[in-house]
Structures are given as structure tokens and as C-alpha cells.
Amino acid sequence: MILTHVVAAAANNAIGKDNQLLWHLPNDLKFFKNITWAMPVAMGRKSFESLGNKPLNGRFNIIITRNKAFTAKDSVVVHNFDDAIFIAQQNDYKELMILGGGEIYKQSINIVDKIYITRVHATFEDADAFYPVIDESKFRLVSNQDFFADEKHAYDYSFQLWEKQ
After folding, report:
1. Which 8-state DSSP code applies to residue 18?
2. Structurally, how many domains does the chain consist of?
3. pLDDT tens-digit series, residues 84-125
4. What is the pLDDT of residue 105?
5. pLDDT in tens, 33-64
6. What is the pTM of this model?
């Protein structure tokens, strides 16, 4: 099973505040949709709630929570990360896309094989959720596409792919 993080993070690794993204980048949303479409996606309960308690269309949604009473329509609920991997494998998937949030990323950073990161070239000091620092002795940058701010994108950003060495 290939484990892949999909994340958008600022220069200071900020990923959110009050369970919401800190920016709106339409091209990042398209990129996210393209790489996660028809894939199993695992996310924490808070990330799921930030989506309005609705699963992502066109994807096999797995919600990770410690809350044994939690249920989610049209999604599989598990209570630990290993169970999320098991469920994806049982459904014949070869790759699991991990969508966060901060705690889920932190728990899985040492076991992922790939990281798709939209690096937002700005710093957000008031963030309350962060992506772990990518250890460049364990991962190598294999792809980087730079984009500049424009009328639809308030910040410069890059699409990056990191792979475990």
C-alpha cells in the first residue's frame, strides 16, 4: 500500500485556523481533485467536519476518529490509522491519500511514501494547525511547478511532489 499525503501548507507550514484553510487558490482545488479522484481518502474527524460533514464526491472516504459513537453518511469510520490502511487494502486499492488534518499528518509523516504539497509562498502567524517539517534526509523533491499570484490567486504557490528516498 502506497501512503500519500496531500496537503497545502504555507512557508511556515501553516495549514489552517479554526478548522478552515487560510487561503483560496482555485488551481489548488483543481489539483487536489485531479490527484484524489476515484481514490480512497483518509482524513480526521475535524477535517471531515470542515467539509460540512459531507464526504468528498467521487472518492472512497475514510474518517479517522477516537470517538466510538461518531458516524458519517457514505463514509467508513475507523478509530485508528492502521484500520484506515486495512480498509483501503480490503477494497483493493493500491494507494491511500491522506488529507489531514494536522494530527493525522503528524501521526503518519514517518510512514508515507509520497507527499503532494501545494506550497503557499506566504507566512500565516495566526494559524493553529501545521504540517510537519519535511525531513529532506528522508524525502527528495522530484517535481516542482511554480505559479505566481494573479487575479484569482492572492499568493504565489508551487505544486511539489516529494518521494521517500
Report:
1. T
2. 1
3. 999 999 999 999 999 999 999 999 999 999 999 999 999 999
4. 98
5. 999 999 999 999 999 999 999 999 999 999 99
6. 0.96
Instruction: Please enumerate in sequence order all residues whose Cβ is within 8 A of that of 147, keeping only pairs 6 or more positions apart, or say none.
Output: 27, 153, 156, 157, 158, 159
Cell numbers at 13, concatenated: 507550514
CATH of residue 12:
3.40.430.10
| Separation of alpha carbons 61 and 48, rounded Å | 9
Domain enclosing residue 74, as ranges: 2-164
Contact criterion met (CB below 8 Å) for 118 and 157: yes
Other Cβ atoms closer than 10 A to 64? 24
- Identify the CA nearest to 75 among candidates 103, 102, 47: 47
Per residue, what are the HEC states of 82-151?
Answer: HHHHHHHHHCCCCEEEECCCHHHHHHHCCCCCEEEEEEECCCCCCCCEECCCCCCCCEEEEEEEEECCCC
Phi-psi region of 81 (alpha: psi -120 to 50; beta: other; left: phi over 0): alpha
Length of the chain: 165
